[in-house]
Amino acid sequence: MSEKKIGALLSKLKAADPHIEGAALISSDGLMIESELPPYLEEDRISAMSAALLSLGERAVEELEKGTPEQVTVKGEKGYIVLSAAGGEAILIVLTDSNAKLGLVYLYIKNISKEIRSMLEL
Amino acid sequence: MSEKKIGALLSKLKAADPHIEGAALISSDGLMIESELPPYLEEDRISAMSAALLSLGERAVEELEKGTPEQVTVKGEKGYIVLSAAGGEAILIVLTDSNAKLGLVYLYIKNISKEIRSMLEL
């Protein structure tokens, strides 16, 4: 795994869509691996909160018998937060503005998650 | 507010799309208002967990400066769970199978949320 390569992937994701404001990869226990988030956001808090949200999503899919969790999307008034399992050990977090086309964002995430997954394999 | 009317709305939502497996309305503190969920699910646990998930989603949108939270969607291997704020006091939870067209489900939810909102006003 190379931090630089992951950073380049996150930058590519940001560049792909002007509505994507930032992206980061965190470990499933809530620690930042690589961040391309806007500088005004506090990385530590974001990563801890993302892990908590995906973990609660996990409980929800278990409880509601929906198999293993793949993604949690939070829609706010000013945009979307999309958390995606990228391999068993990492979470990809993507922030968009409110004009983002969610279908397109999901497609970019799907493609980049595959690349991240193969990078995280030792 | 009438429980019967809310029950009828939830049934209408289920009937609108064969991929919608169930729907329920819970209070924002996690108590069931009306349920059209599949009978094998435990209502109390579902409602408590939904409130917790939406509350964590709320923290996420605050932290990431995305305004007020409107919706949390959890994608599992076997389907989707969609939690939507329906007025300030209630949460609409919708379960679908994995073949659901999410765009269509969001549209149905948007329309029914409006109706629920006006019903919940005294």
Structure explained in plain terms:
Two copies of one chain form a homodimer. The first copy, chain A, has 122 residues and is of the alpha+beta class. Chain A is built from three helices and five strands, in the order αββαβββα. A five-stranded antiparallel β-sheet of chain A has the order 2-1-5-4-3, with helices on both faces. In chain A, a hairpin with a 2-residue loop joins β3 (69-76) and β4 (79-85). In chain A, α1 packs antiparallel against α3. β3 (69-76) of chain A pairs antiparallel with β3 (69-76) of chain B, so a sheet runs across the interface.
Q: Helix amount of chain A, in percent?
A: 40-55%
Q: Please describe the biggest sheet of chain A, giving its number of strands, its sense, and whether it closes into a barrel.
A: 5 strands, antiparallel
Order of H and E elements of chain A = HEEHEEEH
Looking at the chains present, what oligomeric state does this protein adopt? Answer: homodimer
In what range is the share of β-strand residues of chain A? 25-35%
Radius of gyration of chain A: 13 Å
Counted by DSSP, the helix tally of chain A is 3
The largest beta-sheet of chain A arranges its strands as 2-1-5-4-3
Q: Kindly state the mean pLDDT of chain A as a whole number?
A: 90
- Most extensive chain-chain interface: A-B, 35 and 35 residues
Structural class, from secondary structure content of chain A? alpha+beta
- Which spans of chain A have pLDDT < 50 for at least 5 consecutive residues? none
How far apart lie the N and C ends of chain A? Answer: 7 Å
Count the E strands of chain A: 5
Q: Rough shape of chain A?
A: globular
